[in-house]
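Figure S7 source data.
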Amino acid sequence: MIKILSGAEVSILDKHHIQGKGISSHQLMEKAAEGFVDWFLEKRFSSSKPIALFCGAGNNGGDGLAIARLLTKHGFQCVVFTCFADEGSLSEDCRINLGLLPSAIRKFPWNEFDSEEFGLVIDAYLGVGIKGPLREEAKSIIDKINSFKGIKVSVDLPSGLSADYSGFDHCVHAEVTVTFAFPKLALLLPEHAKVTGELVLVDIGISEEELEVFHSSYYYLLKKDIPAFHKKFHRFSHKGDFGKVLLIAGSRGKMGAAALSAKAAFRTGSGLVSCQVPLEERIIIQTSVPEAMCVFEDSIDWMAFDAIGVGPGIGLDQGELLEKLLREYDRPIVMDADALTLLSRNPSFLDLIPKESILTPHLGEFERLFGKCRTHLERLEKARRFCMNYKLNVLIKGANSVICLADGRQIFNSSGSHFMATAGMGDVLTGMITSFLGQGYSSEQALVCGVYQHGLAGEMAGDMKGRGTLASDVIEMIPETFKRLGVS
Ligand SMILES: NC(=O)C1=CN([C@@H]2O[C@H](COP(=O)(O)OP(=O)(O)OC[C@H]3O[C@@H](n4cnc5c(N)ncnc54)[C@H](OP(=O)(O)O)[C@@H]3O)[C@@H](O)[C@H]2O)[C@@H](O)CC1
Ligand SMILES: [K+]
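Tokens for the predicted NPW complex:
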């Protein structure tokens, strides 16, 4: 997992890194530019029209000048638009790269940009180095960049966006942001989704260990992290080792929620899945998920189950059942959907929730539980305090879902697809996380593997089906995610 540092820490990180590696800051900038260009070439952007690069006076501008030089070597026609009045104001590495710019690359002041002439814009005006409110000229430069209606690719950060805060005054609206070493926190906040566009992370040779010495409780979860979170099973493993889970889900008209959770739990590898459903609705489960068992007795021995997920589709008249469960079951449970709304209506239940349990609210459910928040950072702070006070884990669902752990760490997920914004996806996730808990995973392991693989299955289903991807399609891809990750 990559630690997410503040913008101000980037220059300290750079210094540590270049001293440790015995390289110059110019070489590090070159590595960043090469990483950007490798990604650019992979994307096969058209070279039929010239590329405009807006370059500022700091190191973000230096990156842009190096990128212009490298893209020109690959046959792209680049034109640089300078966003500085005099060369005396340039950072040292920006000046070096200006000197290295081949004379064939034309340079103009930024206000001479004519958007009609160009096929693509690269925004290397401002990065993590902005301080205080944007100056008036900066706003005009940003407006000029935004006047381009084609693809705008921002280097490190959309110019004008601060690395660490929520909100912006003037800011480049990028279609893609290519960021270096670690994603800047602002790029992961949902209120910035429209200006960040697609997020691409470029490795510039700074290791996770180098980031680890900084103090931060934010992390970014990548595909390569997942295998280490998985438990190893062997050829003598039997059905019992893969767990016996119970899903308390579904009610009249909402039995689909129970069916989706149960199927997802099986596809995630549970040995035995039972559904606690209303007696008169059991046929739906027994025909749609024949592998599952149904329980509907008045008194159920909940402790006979390795893990329990509660909430999808149960309805809001199940307060008593939820209270009884919380009083009788003492292992971590997964609480979702209606269970969360019931919790927000009965705050006294909070003290009954078994330690290390997992609450999985979407933004609406989060606000019902914790009140309105003006920004995502405020939401994260509320969640952190709650998790640490109650020794519980909260997953804030959305693009870049955030796993908020009981110890205060907050992990942003990197997998997922916009095709997942449809009914039933949350039910699938509840089934997956409950399944991992039942297989003996810790709450952290179950969350990390469940959340990442849910997003990955969504990406894979989205690649196959595109618009119209169903939650059921995502369930069918879960086994493929294990293969894709090399987890047997
Ligand atoms: N490890 C990494 O991640 C690596 C990072 N690298 C790159 O370095 C970038 C950071 O570079 P940086 O520190 O030079 O700052 P940067 O963003 O160019 O901004 C400075 C400029 O902004 C200006 N300015 C400031 N405030 C302003 C305001 N309110 N309104 C208007 N203008 C304002 C300021 O003007 P001044 O105050 O000096 O007059 C100066 O001109 C980083 O984002 C990444 O791209 C890579 O090269 C290598 C590895
Ligand atoms: K930028």
